[in-house]
Amino acid sequence: MGTQDNAPDGRTGVLDGAARGALDGLRIADFSRVLAGPYATMLLADLGADVVKVERPGVGDDTRAWHPPADQDGTSTYFLSANRNKRSVVLDLTTDAGLEQARALVAESDVLVENFRPGTMERLGLGAGELRARHPGLVYCSISGFGSGAGAAIPGYDLLVQAVGGLMSVTGDAAGEPVKAGVALVDVITGLHACLGILAALRHRDATGEGQLVEVNLLGSLLSAMVNQASAFAVAGVVPGRLGNAHPSIAPYETFRAADRPIAIAVGNDRQFAALAEAVGEPGLAADERFRTNTDRVAHRAALRDILTVRLGAAGADHWSTALLAAGVPAGPVNTLDEAFAFAHKLGLPGIVDLPADTRDGRPSRQVANPIALSGTPAQYRLPPPRLGRHTAEILHRTEHPNQTTRSPR
């Protein structure tokens, strides 16, 4: 078995075969690929669901080829990030035999997840209407870029949605070009929304026996996730712009240059600001009419930034982080990713887990830990991301002889 980094309370870790997750007994037929769908089904798999990943012959999920970087077997780390705890079956959905095998898999499943371009599953005979007519209890989750209406033909790529959905318009320096977030944030947010919709639909099915269609799309998910920025437009007609690392409604709430590297300071109230002023050696700032309240500080953001920049430039980011946190001011250096994992380790938070080996040389698969802590049914790390078609024979035998095997791979 693998090992768990940073699990002081035992609520997350690599569990043995007898452990039961919160979603134990739930089977998901996963026809999705790339990120939004696979991320959603991985989270559900971590919580105990049996996820069967349906892949194309020869190539599988597109992200298998998205490298560098790759692991020791040449599988892209992108694919590995969203596909643990799943079993891979290769089905050719362009053939009658492949479609029959897919329908047999769905007949044994509680949930179907797909993110093909709208209309594709219907053309294959695997649309929500047809399958739910056969299986009324099926929860069918469809993930698209821009919905199934007028935007159905628009490809749903994260970069495109960040651009047309307004996120890039508020990201970057005021005097510079719009920039995207450093990860496919819209895909991740949409995957989380898909999880929520699936779980809500399952709760309804538990009460009524009826499944339903769950639809989420990247654009709608982004607009919802724009929260205060979107609300500024919806309520007040304000079209926000780029402020770099500053906040449109709070100050100081941004990064500053310390002597060695940037530091983030997040002052959320007047008490914290007074503590900040004291800690940097400018206690009079809290009584200055320009900075007395948050509204004042936002109005005089540039002047306040100039004063703080001079003070913070006198020492390094680690010095200021220690001093400010001790004073009750939220602050911390802008870490690289290795430093971020080290920080989580220092705090005793789950960071990286080693999953059971599934490679020829027996080396384990390293994964980023699931962040959800459940006291009674913790996240499970049962299977590494599968090699393409790793479980095809096992799954097809089960669907052809459903009474000879159990519903769980454990």
List the helices and strands and how they pair.
Elements: E1 27-30, H1 36-46, E2 50-55, H2 77-80, E3 86-90, H3 96-107, E4 111-114, H4 120-123, H5 128-134, E5 139-144, H6 158-164, H7 185-208, E6 213-217, H8 218-225, H9 227-236, E7 253-257, E8 262-266, H10 270-279, H11 294-299, H12 301-312, H13 317-326, E9 331-333, H14 337-346, E10 352-355, E11 365-368, H15 392-400
Parallel strand pairs: 1-2, 1-4, 2-3, 4-5, 5-6
Antiparallel strand pairs: 7-8, 8-9, 10-11
Describe this structure in words.
It comes from Streptomyces vulcanius. Keywords: Transferase. The chain is built from 15 helices and 11 strands. The protein is an alpha/beta fold and 410 residues long. The protein folds into 2 domains: 27-227 and 350-400, Crotonobetainyl-coa:carnitine coa-transferase, domain 1 (Rossmann fold, 3-Layer(aba) Sandwich), CATH 3.40.50.10540; 262-333, formyl-coa transferase, domain 3, CATH 3.30.1540.10. The protein has a 6-stranded parallel sheet with strand order 3-2-1-4-5-6, with helices on both faces. Helix 1 (36-46) crosses helix 7 and helix 7 crosses helix 8.
Characterize this entry briefly:
With 410 residues, the protein is α/β, with parallel strands linked by helices. It is built from 15 helices and eleven strands. The chain starts with 26 loop residues before the first strand and ends in a 10-residue tail after the last helix.
